[in-house]
Amino acid sequence: MSPIHGAAASDEPLQLSLLQGFPASAAASSGPALAARLPVARVRLESSLPHLDRPFDYSVPAGLDAAAQPGVRVKVKFNGQELAGYLIDRVQESDAGHPLVPLHKVVSPVPVLTAPIAELAGRVAARYAGSVSDVLRVAVPPRMAKLEKDLAPDGVLDPSVFAAEGTEAGAGTAIPAGLETSSWAAYRNGRAFLQHLNAGESPRAVLSALQGYGPGGWPRMIAEAVAAVRLSGRGAVVVVPDYRDLDRVEAALLQLLPAGDVARLTADDGQTPRYRSFLRILSGAAGVAVGTRSAAYAPVHNLGLVVCWDDGDDLHIEQRSPYAHSREVLLLRAEQEGAACLLAGHTRSTETQRLVEAGWAWPVEADRAVVRRTVPRVLNTADSYELEHDPLARIARLPGAAWRAAKEGLERGPVLVQVARAGYAPSLACENCREPARCTACSGPLAIAGASGSSAVPQCRWCSTPAAAWRCGTCNGVRLRRGTTGALRTAEELGRAFPGKPVITSSGDRVLATVPDSKALVVATVGAEPVAAGGYAAALLLDGDSLLRRENLRAGEDAVRRWFNAAALVRPAVDGGLVVITADDASGVGALLRWDPAGYAQRELSLRRELQLPPAVRVASITGGRTAVGHFGQAVEQLLGAQDIVLRTAGPAPLVLAGAPGHGGVPAAGEDVRTLLFIPYGQAPLVTKALRAVKVAAAAKRTDDPVQLRLDGVDVL
Length: 717
Hints:
Number of helices: 21
Strand order of the largest sheet: 6-13-7-12-11-8-10-9
């Protein structure tokens, strides 16, 4: 019998290597009296070590019987150390085969880890070949002892406690009549989606929203979907990329739901407000959780709907292991709890397009007549007609058509100018050969920090080393030119081009959420575009080719998403709304001209299928020292070979290419490399299980340096 609870028979060699860390004690008779009922507690340790990612059995002293309930935080003795963990279950007997160490302490009697969230954490860890402890670190916020003492001194969370603080419980939610005539009625399948939600059913939909501002914008549509599911007596979880979207969705929800029914979950608000909201959801006082990444794990009672807005935004990706994406967490949760699912955005990611084509979700789109009435007119300065009338439009920073659109738009309202980068001159290049200028110390990009003259000394953006005596490694040139223009310099130039008109910037560490409906130029970097309540009169989408030149598989998809997000903030064409884009990409710009995000996603996904690239397949990246990655890959091949599974691989390849500036060109045994594994979806469960097992074994043996294992990373290709 294995001494570690819940381990499979195939893990026996690994378990034997872990015996030295397993909690052991003297005879049970020498310890404290045990609980009369269910005297064994199964504890999930808070540890980043992969080989400790499993439940361990402890005995429950009689004195802790009442407090030691499933879901509470505990402290235990493990291998001579005191570790924190969660009590996940109480059972009558243990199969450890030896006396158990008693629980050391119940940190809090509040059961913060519910059974559904514990199960979800296991599913997420399995999908990403990570550890449950890392997932729980995101799912359960840090404890605020004073809040627990004030709101649940005996460990029991009473919803009336929150109502006494000026909030109302979420039961009996009432929304304005005529929900079927809302903005959803203008979309195919929209009215049916709300009706199914209201009837207590669990439909799955992918929404292509048209408008990004005003009372009929996407925040209102999400709020109406949540209100419909609340009328059926069920809860909802809404996840958005950042605080600006969160503010808008929260405001829309509060127009339809009681204030006490909505709980806001984001780390940006601070630990105390976040934990208070978490306790409100945990108690059932709030039936709707809205927030950023961690809100996907909110313990909402009787979950009926999960919503993810703009799933293509990389802010949805957790920055710590196992690097889970909010969309995937919500999809797993919808399947687990039988909830409805809504993936919404102005565009479709290739992942959501795959769900539509597989029949897992239904598309919710507007008819072409509605599209023409709702969206702005789009003009491309790189098409043949514009180039015939303005031959310099292809190389001009502000082509004539863009200048005229800005001038005419300023007579009617604010004008948005989208640029690719923040700063003044964020990158420099050689004046002779146009090669990007690199630091001689670390090979980082050179830049000029501010609006300085030509005498300013460039500095490295990575190590800040001055480059006073720079020389090009390609042509031996010594003169530099500005490679791209940042938001600050663009604002400066537009201020001179349109004297008397105010210029507002939104970029870097000063990102605006909204701007007034005044006649002003609004210069914003991609993703930092503020919202004008009445919509922009015009928008200039500059630096399109810079966005497309990024060395990333998703460069085109991401550029199109950013263009659509900015264009959706512009007034309809019938009200004079105009979008001018400067880019040569035929497919991406064509999709914007036709306002056809679904067609672009379909085309992109078909190309990925043809090339067998994500999301047509899953991808795993193994990164680390050359020796460690080699051993890891061999172990994976052996394990998969026993199951007759052969994967397509790429690598190992150095993270810094041989021959690059600052690289000697000779492979070294200790250099960092990366190997990619391309995994068909049908084999993904077996492969991820094997990857996880090899990761655990490698961590237990400690014979090699650690490697980073990451699945479905959007930045690895």
